[in-house]
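[scheduler] slot 2 assigned
[scheduler] job type: sequence-to-structure, two independent chains
[scheduler] chain ordering preserved from manifest
[runner] begin chain α
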Amino acid sequence: MTLDDYQQAALRTINPALDDRDRLLDASAGLAEEAAEVLGLVRKRTFQQRTIDPAKLTEELGDVLWCLAVTASSLGLSLSDVAEANQAKLAKRHPDGFTRGPESWSRAAKE
């Protein structure tokens, strides 16, 4: 499945009662909410030595992806365009891959 295939499938499950403005707000707020749920699982793993159920993590990351897909669509963007633009930004920022050191931090801060 491609990102755009997923995005089209996700759009079939949006709430039809929402207008464009409310759909954007619902999806973008959901993105923050679902990302916080992922963070909660990672926090429990890191600081409380709990195991993360892979199925639960997959479910929450899927919810993040759904919200991202609907947010992007509401703004006229495809997930593949978002991914390509991000990849180009990362390649420019880290042309040789990520390096640890103050020189890479200062370069990234300027971009």
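[runner] end chain α
[runner] begin chain β
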Amino acid sequence: MKLQLFFDKSIRIIGSLLFLWIVILLVGFENIIEYSNKREQAFPNIIIIIVFALVTIAIMIIKKKKDIVLRDKNYDKPVKVFLVVFFIMQVIIFYNIYFETGWDSFAVSNAAREIAYNNELALPSITYLSQCPNNILITLFYTFILKLNLILGLFKIDYDLMSIIVINCLISSYTSYLIYKIGKKLFNNIIAFIGYLVSVVLLVFSPWNAICYSDALALFLPVLMISLYIDKKTKYYIKYPLLVFFGYMTYLLKPQSAIIFIAILIVEVIRRIPKINAESVKKGAIIFAISLVPIVLLILSFNGFITFNKIELDKEKELGITHYLMVGANKESNGAFSYGDAVVSKSIETKEERTKKNIELFFDRMNEYGIGGYSLLLCKKLLTLYNDGTFAWGYEGDFFWRSPENNSFLSKLFKGLYHESDFIITSFVFQIIWMFCIMSVFINLIVNTIKNKAKIDYLYLILITTIIGLTIFELIFEVRARYLYSSVPIYIILTMYAIYNKWGLLDGNGHN
């Protein structure tokens, strides 16, 4: 038990220090340090956080004086109604702001179109998938959706990507519902409903639903793994192979989001070290064997997809992890995407030479920084990652590339709110809710670190380990705020923890 308590305490201390660093940057340096994709906010973070603190203090005072306890009601029916209503609203909004974008989103959706409509890939698409083979799975999925849309005739060619956007809307709605169900299981109905409302803002009405890429597609996978992990009814020989499968699928879609699976694996190993015996080894072998089946099937489907569509990928063109390591140390781009670095990597013919050049440039850059310079770079990357509740919406290359002509009242209204004159209002709403989550997680971490806990909450430990791992990953490699988007449900669940544990307003059976 000593090892488990030591690991739990260490993770809480590391998490507290990390979030202290983040909060100091958000409060004191957002307008001092220049960083990638910096968005001008309507109000500085310090104002938002002060209001957050005053509201929290007011609630605590009122609770102490009036001894107020909110009754725990069942919100199942309202949530189910909201799911339907908000889904319809999503489709209306994103239909009216419909546009096609550039960067990787276009490359993936265009490749899917070529296969769906022409049964073959053009050379640029083959080159792209050779460079980014991790996007084969999403291309396969989009191809299926576009073919289905072609059969059903739901959306015309100018709006064909709406078929994918509808799936994004379903995914975000399903994710919000999973968050609600997890909140009910861990805490109580009111906490679950608060978590659901937060997810409605940050996920359901997020503009990222309008983008055809892995950020929106992978959204449900981390929270699905959490839901499965806490499910006590599912047998271990079903639960853990499913976790392995979902973890592998998440890795293929959005590698950063798969860090939660690594966190589960680490925590489960540490948790069960004292109980290792012949029976546990046998169970582990069974889980491993069963887990191989769906993974093998997924790999075979990959190979079948590539063979059937006569895709001949050039493995020598793949941009490996060393490319993103090199980009993460780029001074000019502050560790974010660099067109110059992309040109350098893509101009090298072989994978071996590319890897060698990437590593060489990485160490050259590290030598130039020194301790002070690299520390400043890390601060810039943290601000890029955490200081935008929209997760850098609109900041990729050729973002609002082309869209069908639509001059309706609704189109003008929603385009104004999502990507034109009034977006500063919309982004401010997202920023308020996001800062609420960050501060809630931070306060709860500090309180939990100070307390001497005799019992470990293993789910909480997994969630904090995931956040630490995700942040470190972004600090080391190329940083983009949208890389955080697929893991936002984790922050929302941690926010529910914070409300329940810190504010103490609500009755009901909490999570132990």
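[runner] end chain β
[qc] chain β: The two ends are 17 Å apart (CA to CA).
[scheduler] slot 2 released
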